[in-house]
Amino acid sequence: MKLNIIILTVIIISTVCCGKKNDSSIDKPILIRIPKNQINEEFIEKYKFIPDHVHDDRYAFGYITYSESGEFSTTEIAIVDPNSIHYQLDPKNLAYKKNDIDPDEIQEGYHDYNQLTNKLETIAATNPNLTSLESAGKSVENRELWYLRINNKEKNLLSKPKTLYIANMHGDEVVGRELSLKLIESLINDYPINPRIRNLVDHSDIFIMPSMNPDGFENRSRFNKNYKDLNRNFPDFVADPKDSQDNREPETQAIMRLHDEHHFLLTINFHGGALCFNLPWDTIANKISQKFADDKIISELAREYATTNIPMSKVNGGSFDRGVTYGYEWYEINGSMQDWSNFYRGSIHGTVELSRVKWPPAYQLEQFWQNNRESMIHFLERGSIGAHLAIKSIEGQLIQDRPIQISSGGRQLVYKTPLIHRPLPLNKQQITVEVPGFISKTFVTEGENFKGYYKDIILTPKMRYTDLTHKERSNIFN
Ligand SMILES: [Zn+2]
Questions:
Q1: Which of left, alpha, beta for 198 (phi over 0: left; psi -120 to 50: alpha)?
Q2: How many helices (H) and strands (E) does the chain have?
Q3: Which of 16-30, 92-106, 414-428 has the lowest mean pLDDT?
Q4: With b meaning 16 or more CB within 10 Å and e meaning fewer, what string describes 421-454?
Q5: Which domains does the chain have, with CATH numbers?
Q6: How far is the centre of ligand 1, averaged over its atoms, from the C-alpha of 352 (Å)?
Q7: How are beta strands 205-209 and 59-64 bridged, if at all?
Q8: DSSP H stretches of helix in 51-210
Q9: Is 353 annotated in the active site?
């Protein structure tokens, strides 16, 4: 049986039900690497083991949620994150024991939920023309899933491309949370003095969510408060192909709603524990063609991100090529946010791993910011320098209430709005616009030299019988 289908038959009852709480029992799941042949029903039952993913022919990853001192008998089981802030692996008897580190010390220099909230509220209050603070919903423990929206309200473009950064989806991966704040401050503070930033902000609608899992951060846990891994909780077009919010975690539902409300052109979700740009797919796309339809553009974006992040650009070996890897080549997972948003919401969404250590000391944050600043800003810019199309009739009216199909770069997307944004590769791109009742149009965008390609696309209605498709002709007589 496929390993990750066994998932969650064992709910985390942990120390509570077993009544054997002692110093080395585990009250939070710990990620381990384990030889596949050691996972059987007895092991799963004994350690309340939750499989996560198959790594290669030999190893799998999963979570130990209960253990007693001295129970592990093999040296082949390894804790994955040696910097886990709650437990460390005792190399002598392979039991977990509690770390002596004071959690408050760990958090020093990081913004906790209240500080984060205050900071975002202050920024929004002092920059009302550029920002607004909104919430996508609430976490299990009722914390707001804040995002700061940066959009110059005085700059009235017909519509602007929407770009989204989400960080801290895994509560103990915290670098992205702080870099989100640094990015927000940088965009706001540089706006009046830096033409490049002003151009970006004037031509974009930027959403930055510093924490998708505020409960996990407060509890120093990867999971949300229901011990669910949010990056395994989204509809998966292979393993769980039902694009529905039913039975998903509140944090997952909030992000799904946010995507229903807004079409995001470009998105990154930021993690920690490695250093790379992770490309779709995360799941092995054995039911559709292997490559993501927008592979060409996202590969270009990933290469640019990794190149301007010097430490990332040096990551090679295994599936990594200068800091870039396909998710499924690194390790396959099901239910990732990236795959869902690419497959079901027509976005271009990648995953960035920002730091090998998930929760580094706060004095290192400035260096992480320096490593990522250019990459983060440039990625946002690639949204604003794309094609921005207004689909109109010959009377000059926007064509409303009809599905508009855009084919470009090997991907077909259907929009409910006549105001359309597509990122452009650096070379030529052919775009075809098809709307029922109108003669379709194909045109080529040339290298636009890092300026947005703004164009009204005027479509002629089909007046002659010979213009109609076979289906349209038969509809006339029905
Ligand atoms: Zn993560």
A1: alpha
A2: 14, 21
A3: 16-30
A4: bbbbbeeebebebbbeebeeeeeebeeeeeebbe
A5: 3-101 (no CATH), 106-384 (3.40.630.10), 387-476 (2.60.40.1120)
A6: 9
A7: unpaired
A8: 103-107, 113-126, 175-190, 195-202
A9: yes
Q: How far is the CA of 117 from the centre of ligand 1 (A)?
A: 22
Alpha-carbon gap, residue 212 to 219, rounded angstroms: 14
Q: What is the pLDDT of residues 129-157, one digit of tens each?
A: 999 999 999 999 999 999 999 999 888 77
CA distance 126 to 110: 22
Instruction: Say which residue the tokens 């529905």 belong to.
Output: 244
* Of 388, 342, 426, 318, residue with least CA distance to 162: 388
pLDDT tens track for 178-209: 999 999 999 999 999 999 999 999 999 999 99
Query: Quick one: tokens of 444?
Result: 């080529």
- The phi, psi pair for 66, rounded to 5°, reads -150, 135
**What is the distance between the alpha carbons of residues 6 and 51, in angstroms, rounded to a whole number?**
7
Choosing from 353, 366, 395, 448, which is the catalytic residue? 353
Token reading at 179: 């870099």
Contact in structure between 234 and 336 (CB atoms under 8 Å)? yes
Beta carbons within 8 Å of 209's beta carbon, 6+ residues apart = 136, 145, 146, 147, 164, 165, 166, 167, 180
Q: How far is the CA of 391 from the centre of ligand 1 (A)?
A: 39
The structure's pTM equals: 0.83
Length of the chain: 478
Q: How far is the CA of 170 from the centre of ligand 1 (A)?
A: 5
Amino acid occupying residue 88: Q
